[in-house]
Amino acid sequence: MTKFFTHSLKHKLLFSFLLIGLLPFILLLAYTFLLSERQIVEKTLEEQFSRAGVMLHLIENHLQTLQKDASFVASLDMMDDILADDIDKRISRLLTKKALDYDADVTISVVNNSMQIIASSQANLLLKPFSLRRKLHAKQGKFIVEKSIYFYTQIYASFDAKKSIGYLILKYNLNNLRTYLTAQEGLHTYLENQKTSLRIGDSVKLHFLPKGIKGSAITDAHQIVYLKSKKMLPDFYLIYALNKDVALKFLYEFIGFMLYISVFILLLIIFIALKYSKGIFQPIEKLTEATREITKNQDYSLALEVDSQDEIATLTQSFNDMIHTTSAALKSLEEENRLRLKRFVQLIEVFNTIILTQSEEECIEVSMREIKKLTQRDDLEFSTREEPNTIDIYVTDFEKNEKRYFGSISLSLESIEDKNERDFYNSIAVMITLQLERIRLISRTMAASQAKSAFISNMSHELRTPLNAIIGFSQFLITYEELTEDQQDTVANIESSAQYLLGMINEILDIAKIEAGKMEAHIEECNVEELAHSTYTMLQPLADEKGLEFTLHIENLQEKSLQTDPKMFQQITLNLISNAIKFTKEGFIDFELTDDAENLYVKVSDSGIGISQEDLARLFSDFTQVEGVMQKKHKGTGLGLSLSKKMANILGGDVTLKSEGVGKGSTALFILKKIQSS
Question: pTM value?
Answer without folding.
Answer: 0.39
